Request: fold
Amino acid sequence: MRGERIKTIILILLVGLSMAQTGLLWYGLRPLPAPTLTPPPGQAQLGEEKETMDLITPTRAFLSLGEGRYALLSPSGEAFGAAWKRVAAKLRQEETWLQREWEPLPQAPDLELPGTYQWEFPLTLRLDYHRDLLLSQPGPARELPPLAHLILSPSKDAYVHDGEGNYYPFLLGMAGAAPGAEAATWAPEDPGLLYQGPQGGDPSYAPGVYLPAGELSLPTLKAVVEKLPADSVTGTFFADMSLVRTIQERDGALIYTDGQRALRLYPSGVLEYGYPSLRAKGPSLPPAAAFERGRHFVDQHGGWPAEVRLSTIRVENRPDGQHYQLTYRQYEGDIPLLLPAPALSLSVHSGGVTDYGRQVVTTYPLEAAQALVDPQELLPELLASPALQENLEEGEEAVISALYPAYYGQAVGERDYILKPVWVVKVAGQEYYFAGHGGEALSSPGAQEGGEGHGLGPG
Amino acid sequence: MDWGRAKNILLIAFLSLNLFLGYRLHQELSRYPAAAGTGQVSAEDLAKTEEHLLSLGLRLETPIPREIVALPLLRVRLLPSNHRHMAQHLFAGLKGVEIIRPAGTEGEILYLRGGEELRAYGNGILSYRNPHPPPASSPPKERVQEWLEDFIAQQRGFGQELGLGEVRELIPEEKYFIRLEQTYQGRPLVGSAGVEVLLTAGGIEFFWQRPLEPLGPAGQEKTIIPATEALLRLAALHQGSGTGSPTPVGEITLGYYNKLYDAQEWEAVPVWAICTGGDQWHYINAFTGELEL
Reply:
């Protein structure tokens, strides 16, 4: 009997030992593998996630009220949101993009027709890029017209304006009542939102350039660069923090690195990240794939600020393959924030995101709204300036292709900016900046710290 | 049912199973000794690695270290600058030495006398040149040992514990290249650290130093990858870039890597420092197996 009990105990021990040994063999004995680029799901999100559409959506719209008057619609407004939602839904549908013929109209559609919408896009991208981005799959490799403005008439006819005066019919197939049908009786509460076409024949303006009908008043803002919590943000870049070492730079910046990639957090809140070994030669990447890769990267590494849009996309062909340089700009409503560095910048390669820069600001009102100078008063000086004349081809007429208010950032201290209203005038492909309160010419943001009095240098 | 007999059968079955599992476990442990925390690479693996490296274009001229240990990161800082003492030592006093702080440089100091020049940089580097050391009667060979002993003793006085890394005779030039390593618990600080000297019979022709101070471990110890794995990683990166004949591997050292940061203090990671082709150093992160950039 006693012998049986001993046998039972030995058997139990043997079963336990076999389970332990099986476990060791099953889970392996190798050192942990090197970390991968993509952090595991469930990492702390520091900002919000954004859909593709959110990043290329128009920055503002003009709704024709008739008699040469236009209402400015801001993305945060109800009128903008309700109308754009319907257009955006159509743009996401595959059948919208089946259109084969893209021929410009012999003459521009009537933009003054009451109830006509003109949506202004933050970046003039070709329609095939829009299609590939919004459908998340590449369509036929065919170049479509660039989209600077999308026009929607009360009769639900849509047109694509390429920013050069060409209008292409776009078979959007909008159903139901036209979004601008109520325009005849609609009037903006704020008179500052009432716009009109430029008065007088000189200088020339491109179609779709409108100016405030009355005085436009804007406040001066203060902007503070966000400071992401180091513990949370490093966790989104490095899967295994035990492999990460820190370097305290003498300028106060803190570098986190595992020897392959480095994250630098400046005391000013600016973030820089580099993963140079991803630049190994690889296949080229379609633009939409590069954009999506960048978007997911920002989703996972700090998140997006509330109001942000794609501002540039540039392709560089280097010996190690194609690199897409993407930058994003922040907005205050419909007004862009012009700072020395973009809010977000990414370099995307087929290997992944090789470089990432982040300088996101939060704005606060600093001074009460004041009336801005009439932008038309600034134009004679600009048009006569040698800087502009040098940019024009011989015999080329100076045409104002864009004129809009913006906030121009001047650094004060380590993390702060004063954001003053400015007028941005675009002529011959160059942007010129004028102080909104005073009208003096400014250099391009970041070209000269403190920036004033530089003269009429293009941006 | 005969429970006694059933137990006997089960006992034999589980005993056999445990013996088999134990054998497999032993095999795995000898394949991956790092799993046991510390250990040694087997002689069989060393031989296989050597053969594999040759097929990948690397020829070993030094034995592969067999150790596999657990190491932490090492906190390191720049030593407070001792450039004045070094200037006194290198110029044999400061008589006639001009001291300049070049405009627009951050913390840089220049000591000049004739063609002799000592530069102390803000990042801790000391760099000395004397293109025309005075002629001497004794050949440099006789001076090397003496110079080394004096220099190491002098540096000990400045808080620098240095060990000999390499002495190489440059035969046609009648000069010696000397590399001294700063160590922490017997392991060298590699990368931008230590001392390099070009010694002639007349004295020092070139001198470079970055004095660092190891402050102690940071974070938890982690088991490093074996040198065999580091070599294979390097060979994989090297593959295709060779000139045809295998590249010689002259040195394989486990040390703490220090890059040239614009920093006062940092954490140094354990690396396998591998020297190929006589003077090309590669640093393979001993935790991840990746080449340090």
Summary: The longest strand of chain B covers residues 263-276. Chain B touches chain A through 46 residues (CB under 8 Å).
